[in-house]
Amino acid sequence: MQPPRLLSASFCQIGRRAGGRDALRTLGARQAISLWVRCGAPATGDGERGSDVPTEVFIVVLGSALVHAMWNALIKADGDRLALIKVFAVTHIVMSVFLLPFFATPAVESWPYLIASSIFSTGYMLLLNRAYQAGDLAFVYPLARGVAPLVVAIVSIVFLGQHLSYAGQLGILFIALSITSLAMTRRSSESSDLRALSFAFATGCFTAAYTILDGLGARLAGTVHGYTVWVCLLTALLTVGCAQWLRPPSKGAISVQSRRAGIASGVMSYGSYWLIIWAFTQAPIALVSALRETGIVFAVIIGIVILKERVKVAEFMSIMTTMIGTGLLKFSR
């Protein structure tokens, strides 16, 4: 019988191959999640991924991070966010319906994960809306992005029996300290700031949930592209229904500005999500994920320069600490 570390390595090698989903089916849910947390999302190409990020993948991931920060800025800047989110989701529906005939349907085994991911992704959008109602982009975005890897790490330690390296433990400490310091700097401010902190934290938790579900679902689906299209479609349908229900009738018709911003952010969101899924099949998941967190820097720059948001020195240091902690956590896996 192989030692635990060698056994873990062999499963990681299997998971990085196109046939990894067959091996995953033999595992229980706990072991499957443990494998995903340790090894990352599967590649869909042949052979194993190298330890480096190819130049084209590096550029794509940085571009995706910038686009992600940009569509978040559009949502933050719009005065009728629920209307924008509705148009955003309708754009996803149109794109998904158009793309469905071109990709295979995900395997039956992946559908529980796909449906659950759609529910958490819808919750993510609604919580993001509430967070941006209460707080600035430069405050909400880093927290929402930084909390997700922290939650995944805690789940892996407490419930899955994983052991993080010293770098991973340091990353958790950095993120925890940054969240605590942000809460301390805003404790004497208006209650809206505390609500922003709460909603941003909840948004990060939902992000962690659908990230894990997508990692498992895509592995079982047999088609990354098909899985992406279907999860976007189901999420969009749920989001449209929720936005329609939550938006007060007194708001009236959706403005031209909100329509344009909704379509633009919808297209950008769809593209950035698809690019990240593709990047996961071309380079190590830890490196791709770490690069993706550069979106925190882009969001802070957009918030300060374009949206004219004010960020205190202590808050800026906390935001940078969040990014450092996230990077340590990602690279430690």
How many individual β-strands? Answer: 0
Mean pLDDT: 74
How would you sum up the global shape?
globular
Count structural domains. Answer: 1
Helix content: over 70%
Give the end-to-end Cα distance, rounded to a whole number of Å.
Answer: 24 Å
Class from helix and strand fractions: mainly alpha
Characterize the main sheet: none
Q: Give the DSSP E fraction (strand runs of 2 or more residues).
A: under 5%
Radius of gyration: 20 Å
List the helices and strands and how they pair.
Elements: H1 4-15, H2 20-24, H3 29-39, H4 55-77, H5 81-99, H6 111-134, H7 137-158, H8 166-185, H9 191-221, H10 224-246, H11 256-280, H12 285-292, H13 295-306, H14 313-331
Helix pairs in contact: 1-3, 4-11, 4-13, 5-10, 5-11, 6-9, 6-10, 7-8, 7-9, 7-13, 7-14, 8-14, 9-10, 10-11, 12-14
